[in-house]
Each structure stands twice: as C-alpha cells, then as structure tokens.
Model the fold of this input.
Amino acid sequence: MPTYDYKCESCHDIFEYFQTMNDKPLAECPKCTGKIRRLVSGGSGLIFKGTGFYKTDYVKTNSKESKEVKTKNNESKDNKSKQKEKK
Done:
C-alpha cells in the first residue's frame, strides 16, 4: 500500500497518509480542517542498504592485483607448511 503526500491550502502543513490505491483522496486537513490536495510524488524507487549487494560484495578488482594477492597468499601458506614440516 502506498503512502501519499498531502498539503493543506490553509495552514500549508505537508503530511503523509498511508492508504490503498482504491481509497478516495482525503478532503480536509487533520490539523485545521482546511482544504487539502494530494501532491504528485516521483516515488523513491528501490533502496538497497547493507551488505550482500553487488556494489559492496561482488565488485571485480584489478586482475593483476588479485593475481598478486593470490600468489602471496599461496606463498605464505607454503612457507607455513614448510616450517611445520621442519619442526
């Protein structure tokens, strides 16, 4: 169910009202009982917050940099395993 914005023509109060699409628009201001009109809204669209989305979790890094990091990690693992074998 959408939230609609209304503006009072008397007291100039702007407020939101949660109603179904089939409901008739409100006719009077809840504060001063003056005449109100429903405002046209562009909507907010989808907003993704938090982790788990492409921009924060699945961005490709530079291929050379990622290869260097992988080789360094493999080298450090090999060095650790060799040190364990010596002991």
In short: The chain has a mean pLDDT of 75.
